[in-house]
Amino acid sequence: MEAKIKKLHNHFILCGYCRVGEATASALKEHKAKFIVIEITQENADKARQAGFLTIQGDATKDEALRRARIDKAGALITALGDDADNTYTTLAARQLNPTLPIIARANNIEAQKKLQLAGAHRVVAPETSGGERMAMLALRPATVEFVETVLLGRGQELLIEEIEVSKDSPLVGSAVKQAEERFPGVRILALRDKDGVLIPNPNPNATIEKNSSLAAFGTTEQLQSIEGCCQPRGTRPAKSIKAD
User: Fold this and answer.
1) What is the rounded distance in angstroms from the CA atom of residue 138 to the CA atom of residue 144?
2) Right CATH number for 2-131 from 1.10.569.10, 3.30.429.10, 2.130.10.10, 3.40.50.720?
3) Rg (alpha carbons) of the chain, rounded to whole number
4) What is the pTM of this model?
């Protein structure tokens, strides 16, 4: 196992393999993501291993376990522990060890959400709240939910959305959104993220694509590979997948 861990790079670290962690691991597996589980209990650690997941039995709130999971080389961390305090301590430890690491944290109440954000979590998810919102949306707008789940959750075999970085050498720099879409038929640019990290959803067709920015593009795998090749003509860092099949 240690040999496999040493090879990890740009992987996900999943802290906790209880009910929420197990569901998260299943989703990551479905999307063919590289990840490692940190679980403190023997029972759940064994369960994760039996499911075929690379697993470290340890305390995710401690630096030692996070270092073993190669947090310095990770692409993101998901803390899905059952206790809000543990998620907060894990977030603080992870933020200290890797200041730029994206962190997604589980929370059980509004107060915990605020503390996790202050601790350094980029995104905070409250499973009970989000579950209630989803049930309400299924009743109010079932067609919309079906579309979102088909595309964003990878349940469609053809279509997906990716956030693609635009290098300074890209031929698309200086082009308008509508020009990029015309150049790559079938691709739709749903959002732009400027060089300062500000997200611009549903951009104006005449909005300009800037260097060192990124764009959220919608299309087939083949279409997205084509525009990615134009955005990163010299083999710069690959696109960061938002959701894939």
Assistant:
1) 8
2) 3.40.50.720
3) 19
4) 0.69
